[in-house]
Design a protein that fits this description.
- The chain is α+β, with helices and mostly antiparallel strands and 393 residues long.
- It folds into 4 domains: 81 residues, Roll (SH3 type barrels), CATH 2.30.30; 57 residues, SH3 Domains (SH3 type barrels); 70 residues, SH3 type barrels (Roll), CATH 2.30.30; 144 residues, Orthogonal Bundle (Lysozyme), CATH 1.10.530.
- It is 30% helix and 31% strand.
- The chain is built from 10 helices and 24 strands.
- It has a 5-stranded antiparallel sheet.
- The longest helix is centred in the last third of the chain and has 16 residues.
- The chain is flat, with a radius of gyration of 24 Å.
- The N terminus is likely disordered.
Length: 393
């Protein structure tokens, strides 16, 4: 059963908020951060059911206030919270607006104040009209169209902009075959920002030139720039490459990416990783765009209700796309470390055996996923981790 709000004064304030005209709401937005350890967020209309919670430090946009209640927006979700649970964002900029600014690096202009909205590229040195600044987000006009971009990516005209490419003479020619030793981004610009494509581990390129950790690479007629540390000489068997060879999942599959993240980024052993993998299999079949429970659950772990909202807010705050595997894996890492530390500690210490995979699968299901029929589901997933996944070659 959903919790109901127990504060009479807050309930009265919510009723007033519900009557506010949308136009009035839009004219009074300010940036704020959650100042308590966990802030309850309620639905913006009666019966004002609890939608979920936001952790301390989460940045939100306050769009209206009535008494003890404020209407807030986090990502593309709207809800109501107590004003006493928020503090004004210290980073809120007071910038002179209505003047010409230039992009100081290759960047993106979004149709909404969210990195998950449609966007177009903007090159370093290109001019825009600054309309407003809200926290770290700038509202700009470009070619007659209004959009949003990072305020830190703008400078006064005449200020030095980030170079589009490193000078050719500063790079040392190499021209050797290489392969990526991890999933990595390849950028069109040597500034390592702006347009990019992600390539899988094992992607073959020619290493054209290097400068520090900057690598210029070529494949066919396409040229790009990436981190040198993400490359190994073709045919070389590094420790990372050997570890990738032990990954039992198909090259380029979501399963392979998830397993590599669990063992590499989070540091779980094979048994712990397979316990988590078994749960993701049963929750979403490794599909980051999986919807469940009538649309109230989403993603590889089927984050439900308030946790789904937390996923969206976290990704929005850190410039990630919550619909992607990358964004969801980063949120999973965050949840385990900050919201489920006992689960994280347990997984870090399971034995790297088939029995350890069973224990990891059961514990993760029972304490992190917590599905209906918790005990039987935990047993089923633990058995799958032990008998199917752990023994894969």
């Amino acid at each position: 059963m959903m919790k109901r709000i127990r504060f009479p004064r807050l309930l009265a304030a919510l009723a007033v908020l519900a009557l506010l005209a949308p136009a009035a709401v839009a004219e009074s937005t300010v940036q704020a951060v959650v100042s308590v350890e966990s802030m309850n967020v309620y639905a913006p209309s009666a019966p004002y059911a609890l939608m979920g919670t936001l952790p301390k430090g989460t940045q939100v946009t306050v769009t209206a206030r009535s008494g003890d209640a404020v209407m807030i927006r986090c990502g593309d979700r709207t809800g109501v919270a107590r004003v006493s649970d928020l503090a004004r964002a210290a980073s809120e900029a007071q910038a002179e607006t209505g003047r010409t600014m230039v992009a100081n690096r290759d960047s993106r202009v979004y149709s909404k104040a969210s990195t998950s909205s449609r966007s177009t590229g903007i090159s370093a040195g290109e001019q825009v009209e600054l309309l407003a600044v809200n926290g770290s987000v700038a509202r700009v006009k470009r070619d007659g169209k209004v959009g949003y971009m990072a305020y830190s990516h703008l400078s006064e005209p005449g200020a030095q902009t980030q170079p589009a490419e490193a000078p050719a003479e500063a790079m040392t020619a190499v021209n050797v075959p290489a392969v990526t030793n991890q999933s990595a981004k390849v950028y069109a610009s040597a500034a390592m920002s702006g347009k990019s494509v992600r390539v899988d581990k094992g992607f073959s390129v020619t290493l054209v030139a290097v400068q520090g950790d900057l690598a210029k690479v070529q494949r066919g007629s396409a040229v790009g720039y990436m981190s040198l540390s993400a490359l190994s000489r073709a045919g070389e068997k590094s420790a990372d490459t050997a570890k990738a060879d032990a990954n039992p999942f198909a090259q380029g599959s979501n399963e392979r990416t998830i397993y590599a993240f669990l063992t590499g980024e989070i540091g779980y052993n094979r048994a712990a990783a397979m316990g988590v993998m078994a749960n993701i299999k049963y929750e979403s079949s490794y599909n980051p765009n999986c919807n469940g429970d009538g649309g109230t659950s989403y993603g590889i772990c089927q984050w439900h209700a308030g946790r789904k909202n937390n996923l969206i807010c976290y990704c929005d705050e850190y410039g990630l796309d919550y619909t992607t595997l990358e964004g969801q894996l980063q949120f999973l890492k965050y949840e385990l470390a900050s919201r489920y530390p006992a689960v994280h500690s347990y997984l870090k210490n399971v034995e790297n055996t088939a029995d350890g995979a069973y224990d990891a699968g059961y514990y993760f299901c029972f304490n992190f996923e917590a599905p209906a029929a918790r005990t039987s589901q935990s047993t089923k997933r633990a058995t799958y981790a032990m008998e199917t996944l752990f023994g894969m070659k």
